[in-house]
């Protein structure tokens, strides 16, 4: 079974639940142990509520899914055995570039580096990395557990196999991925969503 590695904020927790529901091992990484402890408590609470309401995803029980999720505050230890890394830090270009720069130094050639960014272009995130062919954006709709759409956006140098593997993985965990042939400002979902929201405000007005 592959091991997946994420960050422990709101999006990271939701991604962790989606991957665990799909039967995959997950490692949640954060620099703060308290953040990880809080994340696990939050995930357990959400899963219990989902189970009680009949909306828990996957064929596994809550306890079986929770057993697939572990936490780690050491970056090297966190990515050991990982084949897919989903970054979920805040929308800060410098922070994301720093994280991917660190990962670029320690990952192997068979690991996909994926970002949850909702608006930063892959060319701004990944250009200059030696593993750029393994880099891609997997933009979820918040929260990923309830809204399955995922935009897959490649860097100009992303290997086609990275795109196809990411697409297949998203399908396997029950998401509804859409592949973009190339990066575009705002991606597609945001541009359509903003247009609808703007028109809604005009209608209200």
TrEMBL record:
GO biological process: fatty acid metabolic process
Domain 3-hydroxyacyl-CoA dehydrogenase NAD binding: residue ranges: 8-181
Domain of life, per lineage: Eukaryota
InterPro entries: 3-OHacyl-CoA_DH_NAD-bd (IPR006176), NAD(P)-bd_dom_sf (IPR036291)
Molecular function GO terms recorded: L-gulonate 3-dehydrogenase activity; NAD+ binding
UniProt-listed Gene3D superfamilies: NAD(P)-binding Rossmann-like Domain
Protein name: CRYL1 protein
Organism: Atlantisia rogersi
Lineage start: Eukaryota, Metazoa, Chordata, Craniata, Vertebrata
């Amino acid at each position: 079974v592959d091991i997946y590695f994420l960050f422990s904020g709101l999006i990271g927790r939701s991604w962790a639940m989606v991957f665990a529901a799909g039967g995959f091992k997950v490692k949640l990484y954060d620099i703060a142990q308290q953040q990880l402890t809080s994340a696990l408590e939050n995930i357990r609470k959400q899963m219990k509520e989902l189970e009680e309401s009949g909306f828990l995803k996957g064929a596994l029980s809550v306890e079986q899914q929770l057993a697939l999720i572990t936490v780690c505050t050491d970056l090297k230890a966190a990515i050991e055995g990982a084949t897919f890394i989903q970054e979920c830090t805040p929308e800060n270009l410098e922070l994301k570039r720093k994280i991917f720069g660190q990962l670029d130094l320690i990952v192997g050639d068979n690991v996909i580096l994926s970002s949850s960014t909702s608006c930063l272009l892959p060319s701004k995130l990944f250009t200059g990395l030696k593993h750029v062919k393994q880099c891609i954006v997997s933009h979820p709709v918040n929260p990923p557990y309830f809204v399955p759409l995922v935009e897959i956006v490649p860097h100009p140098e992303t290997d086609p196999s990275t795109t196809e593997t990411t697409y297949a993985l998203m399908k396997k965990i029950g998401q509804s991925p859409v592949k973009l042939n190339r990066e575009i400002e705002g991606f597609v979902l945001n541009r359509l969503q903003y247009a609808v929201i703007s028109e809604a405000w005009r209608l209200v007005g």
